[in-house]
Amino acid sequence: MKVLEYSDKKNIKKVTVGKNIVLVGGCFDLLHYGHIKFLEDSKKYGDFLVVTLESDKFIKLKKKKKPFHNMKERAKILSVISFVDLVIKLPFFKNDEDYFKMTRFLKPKVIAVSQNDSVYYNKQKQAQEVGGEVKIVTKVIKKFSSSKALKYASILSN
C-alpha cells in the first residue's frame, strides 16, 4: 500500500499512525534530479515521507499545461523511490481550506519545502495548526525543471 487515494482515509491512518511524518506535495511530472534531491533531503526530517500528489486537473488549471505523465503514472514513478514511504493521490482541491483539512488529517511533524515555495506562508500556518514546522530543505536548482526537460526533448526530436 505505497500509493493510496486521499479518499481512503482508513488505510492512510493505518500506515501513518505513530510515524514522524514529513509531508511534501507537488505535481512531480517528468521526475528529474531536482525532485529526487528535494525528496531525499526531506526524508531526513522524519521517519515517514508522505508525498501528496496533485491531480491532472490541477496541472491543467493551475500550471496551465497538459501533464506529460498522468496521475497514475506519476504515482507509480514516485512509489518506486526507496525513501518515499507513501504517495497520496489528491483530488482537485478547490481552495486553501482543502489543504488545511488534509494537513489536520495527516498531522505531519514537518512540512518540507524548497526555497521560494509560492505557498510557504500557508504551509507555515498549516504546520502551526498541528504542532509541526516547515523546513526549507533545498534551494531551487534552476538547472532542473520539467518544463526545461520537455523543451530540450522537443529540440532533440526535431
pLDDT < 50 stretches: none
The main β sheet shows up as:
6 strands, parallel
Strand order of the largest sheet: 1-4-3-2-5-6
Question: Structural class of the helices, strands and pairings?
Answer: alpha/beta
Distance between the termini: 41 Å
The geometry reads as globular
Helix tally equals: 7
Helix content: 40-55%
Mean pLDDT: 90
Describe this structure in words.
Strands 1-4-3-2-5-6 form a six-stranded parallel β-sheet, sandwiched between helices. The protein is globular, with a radius of gyration of 15 Å. The N and C termini lie far apart (41 Å). It is built from seven helices and six strands; from the N terminus they run E-H-E-H-E-H-H-E-H-E-H-E-H. With 158 residues, it is an alpha/beta fold. It has helices at 9-16, 33-43, 56-62, 71-79, 96-106, 120-129, 146-157, and strands at residues 3-5, 21-26, 48-53, 86-89, 110-114, 133-138.
Short summary of the structure?
With 158 residues, the protein is an alpha/beta fold. It has helices at residues 9-16, 33-43, 56-62, 71-79, 96-106, 120-129, 146-157; strands at residues 3-5, 21-26, 48-53, 86-89, 110-114, 133-138.
Layout: helices, strands, pairs:
Elements: E1 3-5, H1 9-16, E2 21-26, H2 33-43, E3 48-53, H3 56-62, H4 71-79, E4 86-89, H5 96-106, E5 110-114, H6 120-129, E6 133-138, H7 146-157
Parallel strand pairs: 1-4, 2-3, 2-5, 3-4, 5-6
